Amino acid sequence: MFDLEIIKTERKNRKKKKQATPKTLGLSFSSDYLSTDKPLVENNMAKRGEGNIPPRRTLGDYAYQQGPKHYNSIVIPSFNNKVMELKPALLSLIGLHPFGGMDHKDPYTHLSTFMELCSTMGASDKDAKAAYLRAFPFSLAGKVKTWLQSHPNKSVNTWEEVEEKFIAMFFPPSRFISAKSAIVTFSQGSNEPFYETWERFKALLQTCPNHNFNDAA
To answer: Phi/psi of residue 23, each to 5°?
Structure first.
């Protein structure tokens, strides 16, 4: 025969156990995670000693920009002369004829004109290069500005590096070969005065400063 008191006691114990253990979606939580004041995640982090709880984020938060708010591929140095600054009038003048990467535009001429405009600041050599780095993006437009921004953030450190990358991109070897060939095959036009021929030749040399013809004057 069965002892009815033992059966009743076992049923009471099962009932108490069910009431003491909360269940969510069929999953039971151990007593280590239970708290009357804090959520389970917070209790868990506090137990691990991980400090402050990060703010709750929703899926929509990840749609916002996570990178730097001000993106610049050039590292901008400060001026040695604290009074030195780029005037808005100068920046406007630089931006009047921006370089857009057209085939008929000469990147060497653009650099020469840009540096000539910046020289009106009367800065020292070091401050002049800092001015070049600050002002150069204002002299570009369209796909050329996009090209500059395509470099990693703050990856270009010196003005010499900007010049090298700019010329390599917009005066490639094919263009160099074409310009040098035009210099080699240059000839005086029929009925063209010598002084006009000479001026035209010197202008041609300016389109390819790295021609390496040392005897040309």
So the answer is: -130, 135
Give backbone dihedrals phi and psi of 172, rounded to 5 degrees, phi first: -70, 170
- Whether 116 maps to a domain, the answer reads yes
Cα separation, 86 vs 100, whole angstroms: 22
Paired sense of beta strands 23-24 and 27-28, if any: antiparallel
| Number of domains comprising the chain | 3
User: Are 213 and 131 found together in one domain?
Assistant: no
d(CA 55, CA 90): 46
Render pLDDT for 168-199 as a digit per residue (tens, 0 to 9): 999 887 777 777 777 878 888 888 888 888 88
177 and 165 share one domain: no
* 3-state SS assignment for residue 24: strand
In the numeric block, which tokens belong to residue 94?
Answer: 């630089």
The rounded Cα 195 to chain-centroid distance in angstroms is: 48
Task: Note the pTM of the prediction, 2 decimals.
Answer: 0.57
Question: Are 163 and 187 found together in one domain?
Answer: no
Cα dihedral angle (32, 38, 39, 42), rounded to 10 degrees? -80
For residue 45, what are its two tokens?
């982090």
